[in-house]
Structure prediction request, 255 residues.
Amino acid sequence: MLQQYIWKRKKILRGLVNTKFRKYGVPYDTKSWWDSDFYVSGVSDRQTISPKKSEISSLYHYCSVEQLILRAIFNNNIVTDNIRVLDIGSGSGHWIDFWQKLGAFSIDGIDISQSSVDYLTSKYSSNKAIEIHHGHAANLIRTINRSYSVVNAIGVMFHIIDDQDWSDTILAISDQLDSQGIFVIGGHFGLLDNIDVQIDQNGHINKRLRSKRHWERKLRECGFSTSQLYRNNAYLSIRDTLPENSILIAYKDMG
Ligand SMILES: C[S@@+](CC[C@H](N)C(=O)[O-])C[C@H]1O[C@@H](n2cnc3c(N)ncnc32)[C@H](O)[C@@H]1O
Prediction:
């Protein structure tokens, strides 16, 4: 739909002007913002997008992302049975459930928000295969210090707006991935780089889009051999706004 296409371009154009010309906004406080400003009405799949998001467009978003990941898994013969998974920025646990349905035997979920961690701890209290950890991804990944076949990070890497923090997180992920492991990233991956597209009413920047080229360069620097991009155009066909939700799959060694 033309309307959705224009809306998305406008968002990026506004971000471009704010970032490069107006130099508007200051970085958000990653430790407190999610609890004080984001999860204000509770935690659920829908509310990981926005407190006001409808159940239907939330389901539509998750379905479209699942479809892309499933396509990549199937076409590349990626093993999902009996694997160990790390999910970063778990929110309400949608991706924990997804990887468990695909056969993962152990899943670590990380989130910086106390509200999310409380929700997830209660949701998975009787599930021995799932461990929830509270804190900042770059530090926690190294503290947990386990190896994984899959590291999943949907809708979270663009919220790591500090460039050093973003680099440190990718390097920590790479260090914990098996040699045949994959890193599944949900985001934008466009042409323009370092565009701050979300600034709240208090002037706090909470989303930074990096270009596909920047992502590829950083992944190579951090020890990934190759990556594949799966563009998500589902946003064009629904009369609502969805988060940036294309999928980039990075391989340590494609085999
Ligand atoms: C937009 S939500 C996405 C949730 C989930 N991945 C999904 O797709 O349903 C982003 C989540 O990442 C978490 N988060 C943001 N920055 C983080 C960081 N540096 N370390 C760990 N979690 C983080 C937030 O608390 C939030 O729950």
Observations:
- The helical segments are 2-22, 30-38, 55-75, 94-101, 114-123, 137-144, 163-176, 212-221.
- The pocket of S-adenosylmethionine is lined by residues 30, 34, 45, 48, 88-91, 94-95, 110-113, 116, 136-137, 154-156, 159-160 (CB under 6 Å).
- The mean pLDDT is 96.
